[in-house]
Amino acid sequence: MHLGKTLALVGESGCGKTMTALSIMRILPTPPALHPEGEVLYRGQNLLALSEKEMRRIRGGRIAMIFQDPVSALNPVYTIGSQLVEVAELHLGLYGDEAVNRAVKALKEVGIASPESRLYDYPHQMSGGMKQRVMIAMALMCEPDILIADEPTTALDVTIQAQVLDLMRELQKRKGMAVLLITHDMGVVAEMADDVIVMYAAQAVERGTVTEIFDHMSHPYTRGLFKSRPDPKKPQGELQAIKGTVPSITHYPHGCRFHPRCPFIMDKCRHGEVPDFTLEPGSKHQAKCWLYDGSLESSEKLCAE
Amino acid sequence: MKEVLLKVRGLKKYFPVLSGLFRRQVGSVKAVDGIDFTIHSGEVLGMVGESGCGKSTAGRAAIRLIEPTAGHVTFLGQDLLTLSKQQMKEMRKKVQIVFQDPYASLNPRKTVRESIGEALLYHGLVSNKQEQTERVAEILHQIGLQPDVMNRYPHQFSGGQQQRICIGRAIALNPRLIVCDEAVSALDVSVQAQILNLLAELKEKLGLSYLFISHDLSIVRHICDRVVVLYLGKVMESASAEELFSNPKHPYTQALLSAVPKSHPHEKKTRIMLKGEIPSALNPPSGCPFRTRCPYAQPICAETPPVKIVTDKKTGGQDHTYHCILD
Predict the structure, then answer these.
(1) What pLDDT shows up at residue B227?
(2) CB atoms B193 and A246 under 8 Å
């Protein structure tokens, strides 16, 4: 992820999008979760190797997160103001009037009218769109480098979604932060993303820039996702649904995890790990699919389509 | 002209707001405030709008799942609202409903056979267990499930399969009309497409009509023949799907369509940004309910807006109407 850019993580429910974000933030309770393996490098520092005390300085301060459901993310028994002031106290070391002023400024930035009086409102007195704005204000108060937005507009109506997406884009431009956008909606991806990672059954199956994904989608799952949406240009006719269902997380299929639902299935798909194949030399567009290994069988399959 | 299946005129549903020691009524939430719509046989009518605009209430009041406050509803020429309980029971066979959350609408302690077959026995469509099993197997086949899943419980199925079972339960009594209340909204994209295909297939095979309530405009455009746009319990615009999406007349419809995310990153889209949020249905604005957010609002909008009729360019039909002072 780069400053000022948006990376979108796309996939269906249960594919591990949210778990990815929660592991980066290290807010999964262990146990039941195991300590995440691998590396999360933030400015050269491995977040997974930090102590809990060091992590606390980064979590919420340098890397902030907003969640899908603003109702359950805000504490119902405290006012908006006291929740915002708490952030200012903990992360910015501001107290008293200074903290309150900072909270007012944060609300103003996200376009909430008369922020001074809104500070005394409880979450239930606000509408869904307003609450999501408060969440964004809270996340952005410490001017984070990275904002993780987990389905930020899924619970909102289209007209409010347009407002919130617009706000996020504008704030990103002004503050130059990196955004990790988790969504299942290709429309939101088209609106917001610079780079895209498509996830299926806990693995990244395709990655590339937003243009590469939309114009040259390669993995059969990505293609299926696009085809199963109604096409605005030819609205009638049958949708090309992906057959079958998402495999259960306790019993992933052997080989390529998509092979039981894949229309291009070959023998080699059934066994062993599938490597990531780079599609264009020199580009970062990759797909985890045997179709792109350059063999004769794969080329025939691709041409036949 | 096709047969008129359901005709709704001036439908209203107010919910009382009670307060104080003696639960006095201090006001009412005007969830549905005088709406008209018609469904012809074999037609899919879409009902769109944002949350809280009264889509679901309208759908439920129209088939008398909740008692409407006022209005007229005729179903196959019969006045639904004057029917007795006994007559209503007969009527229920012809109108069914599918809800948003399939898991919540299936009884977790009933097997698929019991869920789908219960109504068959109750309404006397089958006379014994043997016939019930046969009919349920037939329905399962129609909804794309194997007959051997009959003795399983809802939690053993995925969300998409559960929604198939709910649809199976709805078609069991050979209805004429199915109300789909956000029937695919809770499902994943790839499963959504499967269910939409199933609904389209069943419509052709069984001659069904749908009242399709949804907030997802691209799905409405895909499946519906006609669309009604609601805002704060009132109809803003009504037209054939093709006409509505290509030639929206009401400023709210225009704003709603422009708010849909673009389908390609390089697509250029001019967006009409609406300010603020939907006003409370407890105290809706007078006249046109949209005037508080409308970019073209004028003082005259505080009075009831006139109904205007647009001639469909392609068919020459007169069924595109909208409520606005603008031309």
Answers:
(1) 94
(2) no
DSSP string, B45-82: EEEE--TTSSHHHHHHHHTTSS--SEEEEEETTEEGGG
pLDDT at A158 over 90: no
**pLDDT tens per residue, range B219-268:** 999 999 999 999 999 999 999 998 999 889 999 999 999 888 888 888 88
Which CA distances in Å does A95 have to A119, B26, B180? 16, 44, 53
Q: How many CB atoms lie within 10 A of CB B40?
A: 16
Q: Using one digit for the tens of pLDDT, what is the confidence trace for B3-56?
A: 899 999 999 999 988 888 888 888 888 889 889 999 999 999 999 988 888 888
pLDDT for res A234: 66
> How far does B274 lie from chain A, in Å, by closest CA?
7
Q: How many residues does chain A have?
A: 305
Q: For the whole model, what pTM was predicted?
A: 0.85
Whole-complex ipTM:
0.79
Distance, CA of A117 to CA of A44 (rounded, Å) = 42
Helix, strand or coil for residue B316? coil
Fold of B4-94+173-261+270-323: Rossmann fold (3.40.50)
Question: Could you give the count of Cα atoms lying within 13 Å of B3 in the half-sphere of its Cβ?
Answer: 11
Distance CA A126, CA A166 (A): 20
Give the count of beta carbons closer than 10 Å to the beta carbon of residue A88. Answer: 22
Nearest CA-CA partner of B66 in B54, B53, B76, B48: B54
pLDDT on residue B111: 94
In percent, how much of chain B has pLDDT > 90?
A: 50
Would you state the structure tokens that stand for residue A136, as one six-digit string?
């964004």
On whether any CB of chain B is under 8 Å from the CB of A187, the answer is: yes
Chain-chain contact of A187 with B262 (C-beta, under 8 angstroms): yes
Q: Is A148 in contact with B221 (CB distance < 8 Å)?
A: no
Residues of B in contact with A230 (CB under 8 A): 196, 218-219, 221-222
The answer, for A249 touching chain B at a CB cutoff of 8 Å, is no
pLDDT greater than 70 at residue A235: no
Domain boundaries, chain A: 6-193, 197-304
Q: Cα-Cα-Cα-Cα dihedral of B143, B147, B153, B156, to 10°?
A: -80
Helices (H), chain B: 55-62, 85-92, 102-105, 112-122, 129-142, 159-171, 189-206, 217-223, 241-246, 251-259
CATH class of A6-193: alpha beta
Q: How many other CB atoms are there within 10 angstroms of residue A55's CB atom?
A: 17
Interface A-B: count of C-beta contacts within 8 A:
110
Extract the tokens encoding B210.
């749908």
